[in-house]
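re: ur question from yesterday

yeah so i grabbed the chain u mentioned. its 396 aa long if i counted rite. heres the sequnce exactly as i have it in my notes:
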Amino acid sequence: MKILIVHNDYGKYSGEEAVVDRMIDDLQRNGHQVKSLRKSSEQARERFVGKVRGFFSGIYSISGRQMMRKALREFKPDVVNIHNLYPFISPAVLPICRRKGIPVVMTVHNYRLICPTGLFLRDGKPCENCLTKGNEWDCIHYNCEHSRLRSLGYALRNMVARKTRAYLSCVDYFCCLTEFQKQKLIVAGFDKEKIGVIPNCVEYIEPQSEPLPECGTDYVGYVGRLSKEKGYDLLLEVAQRHPEIEFRFAGTLRDNQEIEIPSNAKLCGQLTSEQLAKFYTNARFIVIPSRCYEGFPVALLEAASHKRCCIAPNHGAFPDLMTEKESNQIGGVLFQPNNIEDLEQKICELWSDKKLSDELGSIAEENYKRRFLKEIVNDEWGKTLNQIITNETSCN
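ran it thru and got these structure tokens back, copy pasting raw so excuse formatting
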């Protein structure tokens, strides 16, 4: 099978890029021919010219269309797998695939199809105004990107895609990461018959017991970018309240602001795969304190693969993905979103009950192996892509 992967990389390497890179590698290992059509947003936000290009390219990218025509002409793929198109590829490439009769499958990593920012977040709290109202005006009205130009650009590109039905008319199948995402697309008017759910996955790696010198052992762990929507500052506040508990943060700082790091907390920076395996192994448990809904955090699966449970907010897809009771879900604990007191309570309770955290970690590992192993998910992707090619259905 010849598969064209299309993705606009973000400014900084993210979990989405990691998923795309892993998918390309897995498809090639399984004998498929894979070609990438990729552009990068690195440094685009810092440079004025890049901001202007991003503003207009997100609506209609001439260079993106040229790249797509060339890729289709030279590679002749059996199927196109879209990930992120913004800002330098744009939905304007989708009609080209339709006219060529090449089926398109889109991996839905976030909520950008129905929310201009992709986060369903405003002023630190979940917001679904654009979904319920069926338009993007509130992104501009509330300046959701904290930049008038960026908020306007995000709203315009979503409006154009919606008005031209670029996704509705030119994507044959949408692969969501969770049932929660799928239901949101259905509410927005997407055809439920053309939406499936294929979760993220991670490869099982044997635990690495040797500690990282900069992180040590036995701590509350956090894995992900250090940005406001991820809620890492909430965890820092809990750390300040409880100097008797050690906290470790693995990830890159994204907020351009001075932050106070208590003596019992350490920023370990961006870790390699081997270092990250050690980080999970030596953590008591992992906390995902996100203010936003999230798509499907890879940290949740990586923790489970290392027999570690998570504490996560009780919103978005998390209630469907994890619980301490249901056997078909990843073991863990839920807290009231954006509630520092409840987060503090859950952390203290789980920290003081190592037996419970170990039990939940075992449940997490068991269900990860049952549902989210790389081999299982790759098989689902192979069957889905084959079915789309065989049916040769184009959305009109």
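noticed a couple things. Residues 219-371 form a domain with the Rossmann fold fold (CATH 3.40.50.2000). also The two ends are 24 Å apart (CA to CA).
anyway ttyl
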